[in-house]
Amino acid sequence: MALVGVVIGSKTDTELIQPALDTLKQFGIDYELSVISAHRNPEKLREYGLEAEKRGLKVIIAAAGRAAHLPGVLASWTTLPVIGVPLPTSELKAIDALLSISQMPGGVPVACMGIGASGAKNAALLAAQILGTEHKEIKEAYRKYKQELARG
Predict the structure, then answer these.
(1) Which CATH architecture has domain 4-151?
(2) pTM for the complete prediction?
(3) Maximum Cα interatomic distance, the chain, rounded to a whole number of Å
(4) Contact 82/111 with Cβ under 8 angstroms?
(5) Please, are residues 71 and 37 in contact by the beta-carbon 8 Å criterion?
(6) How far apart are CA 87 and CA 78, in angstroms?
(7) What tens digit of pLDDT does each residue of 60-93 get?
(8) What is the enclosing helix (H) or strand (E) of 134?
(9) 104-142, pLDDT tens digit by residue?
(10) What does the alpha-carbon distance between residue 105 and residue 34 come to, in Å, rounded to a whole number?
């Protein structure tokens, strides 16, 4: 059963979110990948947000470029933690997405990662930290990962 929902707004974003998927696999964390546009299919996104917890998800990673409404809209429809990843898909190289995700109104929190590949990887690492509070094997895998980082 998937613990993490990874949502992107377009199939073309798949390559950009791949570092998150690779990191989730590295930690043995089951995930589901969905392509749902906040602008082109808002009702499907609403449904996803409302049903995510019932399906067993514990964390959502939402990656978007340009106006980057995807993470915030999802956060408005769920009580699960939402981690936003700004993707460099516009002429502004994700600065627009970064500002959009980081400037959520009070009451609708979204964790905002850095731009692009490192942000995608960090989103998966944050998801692992969150899941580690309930799943001993994920916590231990994350601990080993940190030890390996310290060794260089």
Answers:
(1) 3-Layer(aba) Sandwich (3.40)
(2) 0.97
(3) 47
(4) yes
(5) no
(6) 22
(7) 999 999 989 999 999 999 999 999 999 999 899 9
(8) none
(9) 999 999 999 999 999 999 999 999 999 999 999 999 999
(10) 25
